[in-house]
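Work package 3, deliverable 3.1, input record:
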Amino acid sequence: MNSYGLKIWSEDNFFIEDGLIKLNHASKPAFLDIYKNLKSQGFKGPLLLRFPHLIKKQIATLFNTFEHSIKEYNYKGSFSGVFPLKVNQVPNFLFPLLRAGKKYAYGLEAGSKAELVLAMAYNNLGAHIMVNGFKDKEMIHMAFLAKKMGHKITLTIEGLNELETILEVIKETKMTSPDIGLRIRLHTSGSGIWAKSGGINSKFGLNATEILQAFKILEDNALIDLLRIIHFHIGSSISSIQTIKKAIKETGNIYAELKKLGAKALDSINIGGGLGVEYSQFEKTKQYSLEEFSNDIVFLLKEIALQKNVKEPNIFTESGRFIAASSAVLLAPVLELFSSEYEYENLKLKKQNPKLISELYDLYLSLNKKYALEYMHDSLDCLESLLTLFDLGYIDLQDRSNAEILTNLIIKKALELVNIDDYSELKKIDEKIQEKYLVNFSIFQSLPDLWGIDQEFPIMPISHLDKNATRSASLWDITCDSDGEISFNDKKPLYLHDINLKKEEYILGFFNVGAYQDTLGMKHNLFSHPSEVLIEFDKKGQMKTNQALQSQKIIDILEDLDYDILHLEKVFKSKLDDKSYKILKQYLEENNYLKTICS
Ligand SMILES: *Cc1c(COP(=O)(O)O)cnc(C)c1O
């Protein structure tokens, strides 16, 4: 039975029982029941479920693991974390995060003015705010205002010009400056698809010469005590611990050098993000555990501090993907299987059929368990020949239709008959017998990283898990874009079930979609965000569905694009009778996704 690599990627957050995937928490509801519950509340189309308990779990795991390493190595520095808002800024994610992080003084990292505004308004008081990214004078002044509000805030400078601007703002406003951090341009670089943030040619940070210049500028202006922290970020989801260790050694030594030069207040290293998340359903791609990550960092920093005789630095982390990824799951119903056009009822055999069609029909009738796969191969060859005959004008459209139907019926029946255990037999013919599943969602909106950078996400049906999945599957979304497809990949094959959608629903789950996908997603074909719901539990373990956010109405999507809605309505009103206009108006009040047959 296929468990879709659950053991590899799910971190025990989910489990399979009675053919259903269930949440491993509180009353342990099945995803299918959550879906049905929400559908009965009137939600249509794809649904994004957010699980605050998984945000809490990740924050607790991160802090507890580092605390453990700190104890184990008798490390003198402290551990703190900030959540990089870039990873997820939506309120249904952020508020649960802030609630869960309060006890750890978990703060926020902002990389733009809008994100800084969010941090200023909502950050837990006493928790840190880190400001990274390119900054203008306005943004720097905003950080001063945050400081005035009582926030512990650090401006990490990406270039010397930002330092000059900070000096200007101090002179002009006489306000107390936030702490200053230096982003270091390491020669260490990451690996993998997100590894562009490190290395000598990276977009961000100060090189060795600039670090020395920054130090001098601060000293000359008697502001060296503002320098509290040095920072690096070598990319997201770093797959190898070696890269991280190298970066820590480099940064640890820069820290020690700056201390020796006289950076008295410097007491912290911010190790940025990079903590990996396992997305693969086939093999572990992340080659280290969180324990190894935290042990290595604490151990290395301790060693460097000892060797260079400086104080052990406090450690900050900005890993956000690790915190957010598991907390959201997208459920999207399958609308159609393409082979459903090939039903037996549609077979219209003639009195006199071409020889190959008769052969196909015989294959179909005599199909048995023993020769199922052999007959399937034969039918594929037959179809090939028949299509050639059609091109040459020897058979007609009805013959061709019969040939396609019979071949599909043979494939279906053969796959039912054989016991597919190791899939090795199936693998040989996967390409030819693929089934296309039309799914009610937009890849551009909900899985932009899959479209943009070929990022994998765990995909599986939320039911039927006690039955063999025999169809090698390609997924099509409902956008009119041929890129809106997850095509079958025989290296990482997705097998789904043969379903009669007229009789039962078939819902696919897309997992680990909580990091980056929400705001990177785009409104291609004007599909806006799916409806979303917070799935929470009361003290008795009873499920509560909260903070529901319906997918945008068509009329609102158009208004967002700055169309004049009144004008639109006027156009329709003038060209339609009252009754028709009212019906159209109702349609405009619905979301843009398709309604499933069963709804
Ligand atoms: C994007 C970013 C992060 C988040 O990294 P993840 O590994 O994706 O969590 C952290 N720090 C900085 C400076 C970033 O730009």
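The mean pLDDT is 92.
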